Structure formats: C-alpha cells, structure tokens
Amino acid sequence: MKTYLNKFKKYLLLVPLLAAVSCSDFLDVVPDDFPTLDDAFKNRAEAQKFLVGLYSFMPDHGNTEANPALVGGDEVWFFDNSSGINLSLWRKIPFGKNDPQDPSPNYFTAKSFGKDGNVNGGKALFTALRDCNIFLAKSEEPYDLYQDERNYWIAQVQFLKAYYHFWLMRMYGPIPVIRDVNVELHDDDDLKMQIREPIDTVVHYICNWLDAAAAIMEDTTLMVVRNEAGKPDRVICLALKAEVLTYAASPLFNGNEEARQAPGYSGTDLFPEYKAAKWDTAAYWLNIAIQEAEAKGRKLYNFRDAHPTEILDISLVNDTIINASQVRGAVTHKWEYNTEIIWGDQRRCDKIHEANIPVLGSANVQSMGWGQLKHNYAPTLSLVEQFYTGHGIPIEDDKDWYQLSADTAGLYKRKQFDGRAFMPAATNPVVAAGLNRYTAALHFDREPRFYGAILYPFSLYYGALPGFVANTSSVPAGMWVTWNGNFNLNIVERFPATGYMVQKLAAIDSYYEIANAITVQNIISGALLERYPFPIIRLADLYLMYAEALNEIGNDGNFDNDATELANSAAYYWIDSVRARTGLEGVVESWETYGKDATTKAKPLNRAGLREIIHRERLNEFAFEGVRFWDIRRWKELSKYYDKPVRGANPALDHLRQPDIPDDYYIPQNLYQIQWGEKDYFFPINIQALINNTKLLQSPYWKGVN
User: Fold this and answer.
1) Can you give the pTM of this predicted structure?
2) Beta carbons of 471 and 517 less than 8 angstroms apart
3) What is the C-alpha to C-alpha distance for residues 26 and 301, in angstroms, rounded to an integer?
C-alpha cells in the first residue's frame, strides 16, 4: 500500500490559513440566560455552553424523523396506520409528496424560519454555520481555558463546520459556502446575498476545514471519556474527508450531465465535467484514513473478541450463529466492545430500536409492553432477495439459484424448515415451536448477513435472552429464540407490513425480561434495550469505498480493462477482508466457482463487473444503516431500484389473525410503486429561502414543483 500511497501525494490538500473574523451584535445566537454575546465567551464555562449549542444542530442520525435515509427509500415499509415510530418522512418522500412549500426534512434554513431551528425534523444549518464562525472568531477570549483544550474546542468547531456543509451538499448539491460572520446581516438574513457555489469549491472548502481540525487533533492530547464519545478525533476527521472526496468523485457530483442541463444550471460551472483524477484523490485519502484508523486500534468487529467470557461462553455458540451476528454486532454492540465504529451518534435511538425488537410469544402478547415494542420495521422483498446466497454471490448470478430468480414463485415455494440447523445443539426447548414448520425456499442457504439482518416466521432471533446464561437447564448461553410471526395479533399498527422484520438494528445485547418458567409464552414486560451509538462511519465503510475508488482508477492509474491488470488490483483485498468476516470466500473465487456462465464467472475481472459487485457488497453490508439511500443517489442509480415496485408477503393484506402461516403467505404482493423523478437526486429548498434571496437557485428540476 505504501507504494500506491506515494503515487498520489500530489493530491494533498492544503491546510487553510484561518483568517480572523469579527462580529458584534448577534444576540439571537446567544443562550437566553446571556445578556450579550461577549458574556457568552467571558470564561470557560460560558464558552462551553456555546460549544454545546453548536452540537445541538447535529442531524439526529438514528431518528426516522430527522434522517431521510432510514425510511425515505425502498428498504423498509409500513402500514398507513403504523404507530410508535415517527414516519413523517416515509409518508412524504417515497410517495412523491415532498415539495418546496413545506420540504421534509428541511435543513436548508436559518433559525428564524422554524421554532428552535427545527423544521420538519431538520435543523437550521445555516444558523449553525454562522454560529460556528462566531465561535472561531471569539475562541481566544475565555481567559481560563488551557491552550490544549482551547485548541481542541477550535478543532471540534472546524469539524462541525465541515460536516454541516457536507450534510447540506449531500442533500442539495452545490450550496452557498458560509465563510465568515457578516456583521451587516441579522438572523433572518442569513441566506441573503448567498448563492450556490460550484461543487468543487464546496468540496475543497470542506476538506480544508477537516485538514485544519485533523492537524490540531494530531498535536492535542485528548482523554477519551464516556461523555466525550462521539465527538470528533483525528481518525474521524480523516475518515470524513475520505468520504467527502468519494462523493465528489461519484457520478452524482462528477460529470452529472442531467444536473448540468437542468433549468437554471445550464451554462454554469456548478456541476463539473467528469474528471477521472477525482478517484485518484479519493483513493489516496481513503488509504490515509484506513492507515490512521488501524494505527489507532480500529479493526473489523469480531463477535468472539467482543464478548468477554463472563458475558458469554463462546464455546456454546457455533460458527453459523457467530457469522450471522458479525455485522449486527458491528452496528449495535456497546461502544467499549466495538472496535469497528469510527464515528457514531451517541444520542439514544430507542424508537428505531424498539421498532426492531420482535414480540416472541402470542399467548401473553398483551403483557408484552406494547407501549414499548413496536414490531413494525419491515424490510421490503427487494432487500430480502438482495442478500447473497450461501455461495457469496447474488441469486441471479448463482448457478444453483438463477433459475429460481427468474421464477418468483420458485423463490417463494414452501419448504420444510428445521430450526435445529442453526443451533449449537440438536435439541433446544425454546425453538421447538419452529421445528417442522414451513418457510420459503428463499430463506435456505443464504449468506450469514441475511440471517443476521432479516427475521422471517420461524427464523431465529439472535441475542434475545442473555438472562438465561445463569440457568444451565435452559437455552445454552440464551442466544437463540424463534420468531413465529405472531399472526394472531390484533394490533395491526404494530405489525410488520411486509411479513418480515429487521433484527439487525436490535442491539445484540438487548434482552427480554422473563418469568420463572423458561418458555417463550412466559416472556413478559417487554425488552431491556442496550444502548448503542448509531453508526455514521464504520471501518468497513472505508474498506469498501477504497475498493470502489481503486476499481475506478485501476491499480496503477492506467487501467485499460485488461483482466490481468485488474486481477492484481488491491481492490480485491479490501472487499475480501469485509467478506471474510462473515465466512465468505473472495470475490474472484466465489464468482469463478459458482457463477452461472462464463460471463458471470469473469465479472470480477473487469471494471464494470467489479463495480457492480462492490455496489452490491455495500448494499448488503450496510443494509438498514442509512447508507443505501445516499449510495444509490451518488451512483445515479435510482431508476435501477425505484422502478421496481415495493413488495411484501401476503400477511400485509389479510392474514393477520391466522394461527399458523397460511398456504398463500409467500405469494409476493405489490404494495406500492415509488414516485420518483430526476429531481429526487436532491432535496427541494424551502420556498421561503428563495423569496428572501432571489439569487438563489432551486435544486435541479424542483423549480415549478408545488
């Protein structure tokens, strides 16, 4: 890797020279208990309050009301009357009901446009950016700040300034860059006189601030304590810079001809022409970020290492269950045991957590604490089918599966299911209810990530009952119970609309309170949720983005579609590292051995084929984490996924009270056709911002939409 790294030193971006800026009367940004802005920086304690206020603008990544990537696409679906979780974004975005008059979520705004800076789940990020500038301008004023701490606070604000710009860029494309405090403007004037700037300018500006923050953090001694968890460090700065540059190299921002020709954008340089060198730059910084992360102890999550023996006797857990739990643990395991999280959101994500905890029994279902367990976060059949076969390749590529993929009825043909196949012992009382039942052929012999992410009736829910560990007469280590679908539930708004559930977002160490008898029917009172940081960047994310960048440039920067050259590409190493974590073979071996024909077998040996593989790897690895929504946009592939109808199994219609799975359960039903157009690659700007600033362009293809 060092040889490769040296080739791209020319792409180093300069650390910015931070110009001092001045400000005067901005009372609106000061907490209510401060009479003047100067008072807000008179000492360490008051300045710290201002810093905390800057963090309050951070988008809530694990909140379905704030993060459109969680429920705004085609990953999960709900009944219209689903409750217990905020579905305002789901009810607007995929149904084509978003509009500039009342956009959801609204982050392109100033504080005066919405109460407390929140607008339909969004935040007033332009007020946040101005406040960041104020902090930087006045950071030298608190007299009792030690210099190291002052420097670290400055670096945090530099990072926030960069991230808020990136969040806006990802949502809206070319955006105004908020460089400094304009003393002539007041609260509701934050967006006046501001115009969209070219993507290249925005990216360069973001990266400069990340460079500045990373440089300070390299020289600042930091104590990592629990209340500091989730705040930026040097690794996070470099990882975010690598991600920003990957976005800049991707088709949405690099050579996007549709956006270049959109009304108002034609003839401007807001969207640049395609430049292959942007992939070189991204690859260089991804390499830097990976090296820094690994040097600081980040590594791919390992279920065995993450469970001390006093918590779980690993000898009682077989490899099948461990492999299925790997990625779920990488997302939901507690911070102190999770080596893979580079940056996570420390705020509680209880609502989405509760929506993914299954109700396990039916006899005493009304005592299950329905106020807590939502049981309705339902993956669509596109996601159920998307995961690989047990051979580690897509169903449609697999020589043993592809004929089924051409015949949907074949994929969903009922087969007898023996839950013991996934157990460490041949007998287990808790899963007895699941033995000798029937399920779809689609659920057999799939990759471990499928079993760690998806719940289907009579499948196994991992990590449900750690309380059983002390009771040797019960389930060994208490790791496995059967979800039976609970078809006799009469609480429709708490039922998974597609007939499936997501277990990936249920913390692997969350558990149920239990009665004395060890039976599913006696589980009571709901679940005890183990808090986890919602992932923003994982190490696997960097690995797969790096593989993506390497494939786009070729191993030596001069890739010419020669299979021999690509076979030597380091891209394989990074993909295979992620695959190996769950027991899958490498991409070349898997496609060569199990591909359905010569063309399929050669897919990893050419750039277009490997690109498709890398995209699929990312979709499988990061399913339900809020990554797919942005990835398929930056790849400009909405048509590939949104032109297909949203589908679910038959209980979504009229089989909610059956005591067992009915014969026609696994007959896929079309639930909805997502409404989308070219405009949906970006979000609309609030019309109020356009009224205030006539020089500001609406997002591409949104002009005239109401």
Assistant:
1) 0.89
2) no
3) 46
